[in-house]
Amino acid sequence: MARKEPAADAANPGRLKQIALTYKMTRRADKKIGLVLAAVGIVTLGVFLAIGFLIGHPIYLGILGLLLAFLASAIVFGRRAERAAFGQMEGQPGAAAAVLDNIGRGWSTTPAVAMNRSQDVVHRAVGKAGIVLVAEGNPNRVKTLLAAEKKKMNRIVADVPVHDILVGTGEGQVELKKVRTTMLKLPRVLTGPQVTATNDRLKAMGDLMSNMPLPKGPMPKGMKLPKGGPKAR
Predict the structure, then answer these.
(1) Closest CA to 162 of 151, 177, 171
(2) Coiled coil located at which positions (predicted)?
(3) Which residue has the higher pLDDT, 90 or 162?
């Protein structure tokens, strides 16, 4: 027991430090965060105290209100911190991949399944809603990249629905902070085993593509591939 207490004591300062850093980060983007959290806590506690006095149990309702006030403030803080983080990531390369990494259980994500020289990129997520392709970059360029990847997915797994999301703030695009919500609202059409089978097929195709023998260096001028393509040895 004596050994566990120092470990717990060491963990608590780490958690408190993390909360403090998160608050500072959030406050840079949300100047009113302190007032909002205080208002939520005071109003919640006040409501339960008022009910407690009306029914003759102010102490019990006061304790319950204090706990719920803390819980409500924590929930509001978490949401506003998440919003502030998304605001700072907006427009940065790889921001959509970071969102997909935290989408939750039931989803398997693969970042940067397609990319061009301008660093427009398409990420892939597989879940019970099917395959979701999330693209970020210049809208005019990335639409072509997204369409090509979607066509490839339809050839590989024709029996699985393929959705596409273009991250951005323009017309027909989905804001970064709404990507997760948009994906979770998609209808679930696959079972767990079907999701696993789809992932296996996509991984197998990826392995085949990565193991395909390709010549190293640029192709010599005037050299043509045989009509039948490369033959297996």
Answers:
(1) 151
(2) none
(3) 162
